[in-house]
Write a structure and sequence with these properties.
Distance between the termini: 90 Å
Largest sheet: none
Strand content: under 5%
Structural class: mainly alpha
Number of helices: 4
């Protein structure tokens, strides 16, 4: 690019200076003592340490556990046990379900 007069030089210098200011502002956003070029793992670790992230994660976990418990309750209703109101652990429910499915399969094969 050919520069003909001092006005063009000033315009180009102004553009270059403004670009440098943008870069410096981005670096300044990182905050005092922080390096803006954190690794992916460090950024993830910092994000996960925030209260907002922990609250959202705890909420998702509660929803997941509740859905899990509802599914076990529904499965428990389908399984025959004596006495019918006997309290079973989750592993006992799964074992009983496996045995019941095997029994139903045997009945269908016969």
């Amino acid at each position: 690019m050919m520069v003909n007069n001092s006005t063009d030089c000033r315009e180009i210098l102004q553009i270059i200076t403004s670009c440098n200011n943008v870069v410096n502002k981005r670096r300044d956003k990182a905050g005092p003592g922080e390096v803006s070029s954190l690794s992916r793992e460090e950024r993830r670790r910092r994000r996960r340490a925030t209260q907002k992230y922990r609250t959202a994660h705890a909420t998702r976990e509660r929803i997941r556990v509740e859905a899990f418990n509802v599914a076990f309750a529904e499965l428990r209703k389908l399984l025959p046990t004596l006495p019918p109101d006997k309290k079973l652990s989750k592993i006992e429910i799964l074992r009983l379900a496996i045995c019941y499915i095997a029994y139903l399969n045997h009945v269908l094969d016969a």
